[in-house]
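Protocol step 4 of 6.
Sequence for Polysaccharide lyase family 1 protein (Schizophyllum amplum) entered exactly as in the expression construct, tag removed. Do not edit the line below.
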Amino acid sequence: MWFTTAWLLGACCGLTLGLDIYDGPKPDLSDTPFGYAAASTGGTTNVSAVYVVSTLADLKEAAELPYTKTIYVNGTIHGNELDDGSMADCQTYIDTTGSDNSASRQFNFTLYILAFNETYTALVDAAAEAGETFEGRNATEYSELLSHQNGWRPTVVATQKSQVGVRLTNNTSLVGLDTSAALDGINLYLSSIDNVWVRNLKLVSPADCFPAPETFPSSWNAEYDAVGLVTSTNVWVDGCELQDQLSGEYVVPDELDGWQVDRFDGLFDCEDGTDNVTFSHNIVRNHHKSLLIGGGTKEADRDLGKMHFTIFGNHFDSSASRNPLMRFGTFDIASNLYSYANDAEPLFEAAVERRADGPADAVFQYHLGVYNQSTVHVRANAFVATGAYATDASRLFTVSEATLPERPAHVCVDSASTSTLNGEAVDMDMVAQATVDYFVEEGRAVEGAVLVTCDGVADEGYELPVVLASGEDVEQYVLANAGQV
Ligand SMILES: *[C@@H]1O[C@H](CO)[C@@H](O)[C@H](O)[C@H]1NC(C)=O
Ligand SMILES: *[C@@H]1O[C@H](CO)[C@@H](O)[C@H](O)[C@H]1NC(C)=O
Ligand SMILES: *[C@@H]1O[C@H](CO)[C@@H](O)[C@H](O)[C@H]1NC(C)=O
Ligand SMILES: *[C@@H]1O[C@H](CO)[C@@H](O)[C@H](O)[C@H]1NC(C)=O
Ligand SMILES: *[C@@H]1O[C@H](CO)[C@@H](O)[C@H](O)[C@H]1NC(C)=O
Ligand SMILES: *[C@@H]1O[C@H](CO)[C@@H](O)[C@H](O)[C@H]1NC(C)=O
Ligand SMILES: *[C@@H]1O[C@H](CO)[C@@H](O)[C@H](O)[C@H]1NC(C)=O
Ligand SMILES: *[C@@H]1O[C@H](CO)[C@@H](O)[C@H](O)[C@H]1NC(C)=O
Ligand SMILES: *[C@@H]1O[C@H](CO)[C@@H](O)[C@H](O)[C@H]1NC(C)=O
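Step 5 output, structure tokens:
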């Protein structure tokens, strides 16, 4: 699109030639953030900077504007949309990496995976040694080609990354115009910025074309969160639907040389001193590792004292783990609905009768991950399970990295509210304590490193938009209020 270039020239001079100013109808959304992001305003304070975008190029340009703005998204914007309007596939990223004769354009993901198989490469090398062909190829050349794959991968990864990544800037609202608004295969990232709203959007994470395997057959290190926050503050993500593909269905890993290729990273991952975030009224569906809050020990110093999150009114719909996983911060887990098929072996309680298997899905592992030094306030939440172990509560929590009794994690279960599992009251205090006891007994946690108590846990000091005291109320509220409008 030639006008994209014209607009780029405009951007340097503070003009907004290519962007459409929007003053049409707006979605009916409450403009009152709450929880830890209550002080955020997004782009609302600048009524003279309201834009509408429907292409990736326009979205990227609008997102870069160095002042307070609101960007409405009209329809579906595809992360693989090239400037000429055509859609890239994985081979496109390879074919456009570097210059025309770049060696890295010989990258081939199948060969990259095959090259990890030492039995296979030994056979190729033996054929080369013997001056024979291998699978109809010149074995000497093939061996050489296999040996370069790992080195070429980062350069083709960079091509996909720059295509599908959309960087937000300070003081921005990004809002879907209606339920057709979607960022399809886009990695929205917030890096060292402040004051952002992301609302009323389908947020579909990009499938990583070239993920790196970890342990055979199914552990992968894929890139591209649907939304990623690094060292960012005052962020409100509300009324969005986060998922693996536009249809909302789970993406079954593909098989390649015995590997089950999982091309998805987190849906909402936050790290490195991020603070004051409210994640509310979202639907998180059909995903494996959904919300990672706290990037790990290496970030402890930057996270401790920060990482305040309000997780309110969300629907975790077949989200197999990390709902969320929590490290180092303070987490208010209130009024969320968890619906899922529980086919995972109970950890410490008697199993109920095994039922028929459900549809292909990510295999459920756990909901609330209490990790290193986190403070988790659990209010009324509703758990609705089907599957072989629908009444098992042993995986509502998990405990990990619990090694420091002198700096314990805390699970504070609100005594004024009642969570439910399939409509029955569930004693979350008891379940949390039983989980801790189980991990201690297994030698996977140190006694005293997770305390199930509200002693020493400060009140959030804010009010939620609505206080729901029972799981039943939560279920109704979430079904009525989560997701796009
Ligand atoms: C508001 O938007 C205009 C563009 O319409 C921009 O020039 C101005 O700097 C913005 N104001 C603030 C406070 O960001
Ligand atoms: C949204 O896009 C459709 C075409 O896909 C167009 O007809 C409509 O005018 C656009 N709306 C706005 C507000 O830009
Ligand atoms: C990648 O390698 C596989 C296995 O040799 C082959 O089938 C496929 O055609 C190759 N892809 C390209 C684009 O060359
Ligand atoms: C590795 O390659 C050998 C030889 O082609 C094959 O028999 C084996 O199944 C492969 N291993 C895996 C884990 O795919
Ligand atoms: C295989 O390729 C190498 C390097 O290009 C070449 O020296 C050799 O002659 C080839 N072998 C056969 C059998 O064609
Ligand atoms: C964001 O907006 C606030 C309030 O309008 C302003 O004080 C601040 O400087 C802005 N930040 C940036 C980086 O423009
Ligand atoms: C955002 O604002 C902060 C100050 O609040 C500033 O340090 C940072 O550079 C800004 N980031 C961008 C991307 O403009
Ligand atoms: C986070 O919000 C609290 C008030 O709830 C405020 O005291 C603190 O300064 C905020 N932190 C950042 C980094 O904005
Ligand atoms: C927990 O965090 C502390 C830093 O506060 C670190 O020293 C320790 O290794 C972490 N423990 C685990 C098991 O990751």
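Step 6, annotate. The pocket of 2-acetamido-2-deoxy-beta-D-glucopyranose (ligand 1) is lined by residues 46, 48-49, 67-68 (CB under 6 Å).
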